Amino acid sequence: MENLLRPLIVVGGSVVLTLVIGWATDFLLRKADERHHETPLWGLLRRGRIPYMLVLFAALLRGSYDEADLLESRADGVGRALTLILIGSAAWLIIRIAAAIVETSYSRYASARAHRDPARVRRVRTQVTLIMRVVSAIVGVVAAASMLLTFPAFKAAGASLLASAGILGIVAGVAAQSTLSNMFAGFQIAFGDMVRIGDTVVVDGEWGTVEEITLTFLTVHTWDERRITMPVSYFTSKPFENWSRGSPQMTGIVFWHVDHSAPVEAMRDKLRDILRECPAWDGRAYNLSVTDTTPSTMQVRALVTAKDADDIWTVRVTVREQMMGWLADKHPYALPRVNTADAILPPSHHSNGHRSSPDGVPAQQRRYHGNHNSGRPER
């Protein structure tokens, strides 16, 4: 009877005690979360209740297993299995606690500076993300090494592994040169403030937002819902555009090719009217100038401003579309046309001071031929 009750008491007592302690701890965390709404720490710590209960159960059962007299022939194997569970759940719990503390600290910092210094908030977010990945990797490696050391064969092989550590380090360094360079580049990006999560960048002609940064790769979410993944070493070795560095305010350019007779002053007034009706324009500045001419057209450039990259795109497409519609409706003669008139002859071919074409018809009459009603040269 004692042989039957002892295992039940040991195992059942470990389960009951684990459930009671786990419930009490979760109850206290829930009450603390209800009382302190200003911090998410207590709510985040509740995410670790599963590894916490595993640690409790494995520790209680491992400590009392020798008294249970259960599976005595396999006591070593069961004891080692409980030790492995204890190490793994402890590493899981440490990662959850560290994540809760780091996320709470970041949330407080972001809420205090989100409106004053959004670029700094994105930088801290990038650093926190990479730090958590490093902490998780270190805890995982230590936990895996601790698990391996519970096996006697690995203890015996420890001396030989240490003796060959120098050679293995050289071989691993050569084999993982690319990986190591990306890892160091990840640290350089995180703490060098080159690029941050949420920054708007242009990479190889692709415009998008930095969505994820790890120790080895970076993901850019493009405007057309694609995701470009590239090694972080790219950003430390090649030039790229970061539109979010410094002030997010931007100046955009819109070009038109119009006829030489286009009403430039009226276009300036129309640009002003378009911008006043465009919510994306920040009201800082605008300008319209003739920047170039060709034999058949002239180039008109408009400068507009907006508070960020998304709004500058909206302003540019709005100005381009509405200006072209206004020209087509109110000033169709200002649109580019193909010149079909004959060339004007040199003065040596003129007679009586009038320009004539080879067939005897004055060139000026030829240029206006067929357009007497419009009063414009035919082109």
Contiguous runs where pLDDT drops below 50 for at least 5 residues: 349-379
Largest sheet: 5 strands, antiparallel
Helix/strand/pairing class, anyone? alpha+beta
Strands ordered across the widest β-sheet: 4-3-2-1-5
| Straight-line N-to-C gap | 113 Å
Count, helices: 12
Name the helicity range.
55-70%
> What would you report as the Rg, rounded to the nearest angstrom?
37 Å
Average residue-wise pLDDT: 76
Strand content bin: 5-15%
The arrangement of helices and strands along the chain is HHHHHHHHEEEEHEEHEEHH
Total strands: the figure is 8
| Apparent shape | elongated
Overview features:
5-stranded antiparallel β-sheet; disordered C terminus; 3-stranded antiparallel β-sheet; 379 residues; alpha+beta
What does this structure look like?
This protein has twelve helices and eight strands. It has helices at 2-35, 41-45, 49-64, 75-113, 118-149, 152-163, 165-175, 177-192, 234-237, 264-276, 309-330, 363-368, and strands spanning 200-203, 206-213, 217-222, 227-231, 241-242, 250-258, 281-293, 298-306. α1 runs antiparallel to α3 (49-64) and α4 (75-113) runs antiparallel to α5. The radius of gyration is 37 Å and the shape is elongated.
